[in-house]
Amino acid sequence: MEMSVSEKLKILGAGAKYDVSCASSGVSRKSGSGQTGSTVFSGLCHTFTEDGRCISLLKVLMSNKCRFNCAYCVNRAENDIPRASFTPRELADLTMEFYRRNYIEGLFLSSGVVGSPDNTMELMIKTVKILREEYRFGGYIHAKIIPGADERLAERMGRLCDRISINLEFASRRALKLLASDKSQTDIIGSMGSVTNRLLENAEERRKFKSAPPFAPAGQSTQLIIGATAERDYTIVRLAQALYKRLGMKRVYYSAYVPVVKHPDLPGRDTSPPLVREHRLYQADWLIRFYGFTPEDIFSDRDESLDLEVDPKISWALKHADFFPVEVNTADYYTLLRVPGIGQRTAQRIVQARRFSRLEDINLIKMGMVRRAFYFITVNGRFLGRCAPDNPALKFMLRDNNINCQITFDSLMSAKRLEDEGSAAGLISAVSASSPA
Ligand code: SF4
């Protein structure tokens, strides 16, 4: 008996939930006349599953029938599960219906390998073409490139989508060979390189001709599975850095391995997904992309695993106590960024505000500085932490669940008076107004 679309959706939505490489960013296409949907005000609509991962409301597979047999995947050929496939028309209609009902903002489309990688890509392209060309859908679309597919198909997909991604899955060639023998790391990196070249060419075309059609304007992303193999955090973070630097990757997503199938080379089914490790990797990734850290900074003592108890920035600060405290009224921007509790925006605000007057502690809190920073700074020569940065007890106080530890603010009252007089408040709002978003 023919399966209904809602039955297919149940199976194919569940089949896609372990892929975390979806987030909408970096694109600002407005809807034109006669178009439905826009990427301007929001991207994909996200929700959180029970196990804490972020998914979009229409995050589906074209099909969960798969010729490949990746050991870690619920859709692997040998797994005995209900199988289903959408036709391109069914999936395009479903997307539009959900969009019109305001359930979703876009589509994240992946698939098992149906017949061959090229055949699968053709089906996915057909779906996206119906959406873009027939229904004039202008919302966000992120599609996977199937490993091993012809480069020309990736090119066609990139013309239709906002973002495309190819999952690298593991940091080492050996792990991929062991657990996904149908895939080749050389091919995957080769495809990523072709997409990067195409993105660069397109940027050049669009610099010369504003009307040149865009190619994946939100760039490409990839996913690495964490905890299925013995790969160390240092290897993973170094790889991520190379992907950002050499391939211009927009995002590397880390997916804590969820044991969904029994396999002798994988952790047992009773193993919990390493979600804290996944979280720490995202924090390390952030430090590399926006805070000027290198993998060697983060893993400076050659310990190849991230500390799970505190975030990587605190971990670095505790190991480099001699770097602190830094004086907020004189430290340069990059030194401020090394202080736990001072983010990019706060560092920018501090640097700008110092042009007008010396800062007091209350100014810093208003600018968004988190209180744990007081353990690592001086304000006008005064240290306000309860213990020095090299105190072994500090790590305990700064653990995630203990970050509201007490700080002695002996200048709070005088700063409060400043605020009452309006000087601090005026200064802060002037700085906020002039800060970049
Ligand atoms: S190619 Fe591998 S990871 Fe992708 S659906 Fe098939 S078995 Fe799963």
Average pLDDT level: 83
Tally the helices: what do you get? 16
Low-pLDDT stretches are 23-27, 38-45, 47-55, 402-437
For this structure, the CATH topology of the largest domain is TIM Barrel
Find the count of extended strands (DSSP E, 2+ residues): 10
Order of helices and strands: HEEEHEHEHEHHEHEHHHEHHHEHHH
Please give a structural write-up.
The longest helix has 24 residues, at 185-208. This protein has two domains: 5-298, Aldolase class I (TIM Barrel, Alpha-Beta Barrel); 312-434, no CATH class. The radius of gyration is 25 Å and the shape is globular. Helix 7 (233-247) runs parallel beside helix 8 (275-290) and helix 12 packs across helix 16. The protein has helices at residues 5-16, 88-100, 117-134, 151-160, 173-179, 185-208, 233-247, 275-290, 295-298, 312-319, 333-337, 344-353, 361-366, 393-397, 412-420, 423-434, and strands at residues 46-48, 54-56, 59-61, 106-110, 140-144, 163-165, 220-226, 251-256, 326-327, 377-378. Strand 4 (106-110), helix 3 and strand 5 form a beta-alpha-beta unit. The protein has 437 residues and is of the alpha/beta class. The chain has a six-stranded parallel sheet. A two-stranded antiparallel ribbon has the order 1-2. It has 16 helices and ten strands. Iron/sulfur cluster binds next to loops.
